[in-house]
Structure formats: structure tokens, C-alpha cells
DNA sequence: CTTATGACTGAAATTGAAAATTGGTCAGTT
DNA sequence: AACTGACCAATTTTCAATTTCAGTCATAAG
């Protein structure tokens, strides 16, 4: 039932999956869905919540506070990028945002982003407390880090043919965030 | 004539200005316009070229190679942001990109961005040669700088109510680009 | 009784054909 | 020679008819 819905949302996006469709895949009548979920939106939220939980699990698995802050940061961002690239639902939803701007898919993607920002903010705050990085406003710094990461990993490719390698991305990230541009 | 067109494009955007409209403002017949310009698009390009020239003038006026790289950078970016905020045409065009995605306005905005990137890339390259900043890939660094600047000056405000002050923006910019996050 | 169902409903989206708009032309006017 | 606006083809807009779909509920099944 939840599986059927997940399958349909992943295959067709939010807008293009119908409750009839979900019912057929789940082998139940349409009315039955409404004994478990109040609305299409609530059903969708349930699925999304699952995906977000997976993301949180990934984050927890990758973070190791015995390792340096930047190591953790790279590892988590790489894993999340890969996760996103593999998960049909997230791919479909970001297409839907681009092509139709469906409010529900926009909201979903911004919740996903919120989770990532939340993790990053927490880690930045922790690193500051550990005096591993300078004093700073964690929410602004997390926001900027994510923007930079997205700029390097996807926006660059839209205007330039040769995509940056993982090593180049990491190198630029380090140059900016860790060391700064000024000469020693 | 060019003035009439500029006025109309600034007031209504690319899509919503008609050649009839321009002709009326300019007090000429529609046909007359076509003795000076081949198409609507070419007329528009002429106007845009003027705006871009103004931008280049601003850049040249603000850059002073006797001053430090980051001083120049801030001064130019601030001036350009202000210029953009005052120029009806650029405001209208970016609205049009957001609301309709008109190809001509998209192309126009990306040409404007290209000019800014071009300037930044040149300045980064110069600063590297002067050993004022580290060795780096000027095009990637310019790209990231602009992304960061836009993130701080406009994208932050979309998700957070309290806009960052000019001082905060400058401070974060410095933190990231100049000094880096790692403790000394 | 409880649980499941699919025909049904009103609201919203889609379609398509007619009407209006508009970039560009050119025969005629000045 | 310079200018003009009626005109044309193509695109865009309009809007009513049709279709789709989330959610309901009377009925059926267990």
C-alpha cells in the first residue's frame, strides 16, 4: 500500500499519480486508501517522511566526530548527492519542480533541503565549540556551504561542458572554506 | 526612437512591448522603425548593449589597481547591485524570467551575468599574477564568488525574514574568501 | 457489526477551435 | 527618398465544452 504509492510517486511524480492508479497497484479499491490516509497530500507526506528518515540515517552513519570537520562534511555531502541521484522519487520531484512548479513537489524539495541545512548547521556549531573552525554564524555558514556545493556539483555544468571532477570540487571547496584565498 | 523603445521595454518587459507601442511613443509609423532595426530582437539588443556599456563604465570607474583586490571586488559588486536595483529594465527583465521564462529576457540576463563574470575573472587572474591571492582557476573562482554574493544578497532573504546587513554580507564574504574557516 | 468498494460528484484541469494580437512587409503617400 | 499604416501569416489568447480526479458515500462482502 505505502509501497504502491511510493512506486507511483517515483514513477510519475506528485501531480501525475492518481489515487486510482495507486489503488490499482496496491490491489485495493480507491475508498480503502482513504481509511488509512486522509488526503493524497498526507499519503505523499508519509512517503516523503520515509525518504527523509533514510537521509538522516545516512548522515548519522557517515558522521564520525573523531574525524576532522571537513572530512565529515565531504563524506556526508557526497553520500547525500549520491542518494539523491539514485532515488527515483527525488529525481522525479526535482524534474517536476523545474517543469511544472507543482507546489507540493516544491515544498517537498525544500523540506529535503531543510534537513540537510539542519544537519550542516548542527555540525558547524559543534565544530565551532570544538574550536576546530572559527567563530561564525552557523546558519549563514551552513547556507553558504550548501550553495557552494550545489554551485560546484550541478550549476557549473549547466554553463560549462567539462564537468568538474570530484577532486576539483573538493579542492575548490577546501580553498574557499578552509584556507581562504589570501596568500599566507 | 531608441529612447522610446528603452522606455517601453523597461515598463512592460520584452514580451509585452509591441512594435506598435514603441512606434506610438516615438511618434513615428511602425514601418519607420524597420528602416533602422531589422527585428524587434535587434532593437532590444541595441538597448541591452547600452545598459551593458553603462555597467562596464561603472566597473572601470570603481576598479583601482592600487587598492587591494577585495576592496575593488566589494565596491564593484555593491555598485552593480545598486545599478541593477535602480534600472527598471533589469528589474523588469528578471521578473519576466521568473514569471514567464521568456527566452529573450533569459538570454539578456545571462549576458549581463556574463559581463560581470568576465570582469571578475579578469580581476582574479590579475590578482593571482600580482601574488595578492593564491594560485587558482580564475573562472571557477569568479563563478563561486558571484554565486556566494547572490546567495548572501538575495537568496538568503527568500527563506529568512531578517535580511543581512551590508556589513554582515561583507564579513561573511571575507570570512570565506579571504581568510577561510580553519583556525589559525 | 466492521471493512472494503467503486459509482458518483463538484471542482479543477485540459482541449481545441475561434478570435485577437502582433512582428514584419510593402504599395502607396508625402 | 523617407515615411506610413493597411495588410498578412503566424503566433497567442480566450473560453466553452469536455475530461480528469480527489474525495464521498450508499451498498456489498465478510
Automatic annotation (TrEMBL), chains A, B:
Gene3D superfamilies: Tetracycline Repressor, domain 2. SUPFAM superfamilies: Homeodomain-like, Tetracyclin repressor-like, C-terminal domain. Residues 18-37 bind DNA. GO terms for molecular function: DNA binding. Residues 1-55 form the HTH tetR-type domain. InterPro entries: DNA-bd_HTH_TetR-type_CS, Homeodomain-like_sf, HTH-type_TetR-like_transc_reg, HTH_TetR, Tet_transcr_reg_TetR-rel_C_sf. It holds the Pfam family TetR_N. Keywords: DNA-binding. GO terms for biological process: regulation of DNA-templated transcription. This is AcrR family transcriptional regulator.
Amino acid at each position: 500500500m505505502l509501497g504502491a504509492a511510493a512506486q507511483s510517486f517515483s514513477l510519475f511524480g506528485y501531480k501525475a499519480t492518481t489515487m486510482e492508479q495507486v489503488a490499482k497497484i496496491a490491489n485495493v479499491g480507491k475508498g480503502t486508501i482513504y481509511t488509512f490516509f486522509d488526503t493524497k497530500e498526507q499519503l505523499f507526506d508519509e512517503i516523503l517522511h520515509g525518504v527523509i528518515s533514510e537521509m538522516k540515517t545516512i548522515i548519522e552513519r557517515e558522521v564520525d566526530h573523531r574525524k576532522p570537520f571537513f572530512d565529515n562534511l565531504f563524506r556526508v555531502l557526497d553520500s547525500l548527492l549520491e542518494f539523491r541521484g539514485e532515488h527515483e522519487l527525488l529525481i522525479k520531484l526535482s524534474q517536476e519542480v523545474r517543469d511544472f512548479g507543482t507546489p507540493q513537489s516544491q515544498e517537498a524539495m525544500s523540506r529535503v533541503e531543510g534537513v540537510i541545512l539542519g544537519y550542516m548547521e548542527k555540525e558547524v556549531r559543534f565544530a565551532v565549540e570544538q574550536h576546530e573552525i572559527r567563530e561564525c554564524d552557523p546558519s549563514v555558514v551552513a547556507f553558504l556551504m550548501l550553495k557552494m556545493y550545489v554551485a560546484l556539483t550541478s550549476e557549473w555544468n549547466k554553463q560549462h561542458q567539462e564537468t568538474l571532477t570530484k577532486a576539483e570540487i573538493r579542492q575548490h571547496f577546501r580553498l574557499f572554506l578552509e584556507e581562504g584565498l589570501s596568500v599566507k
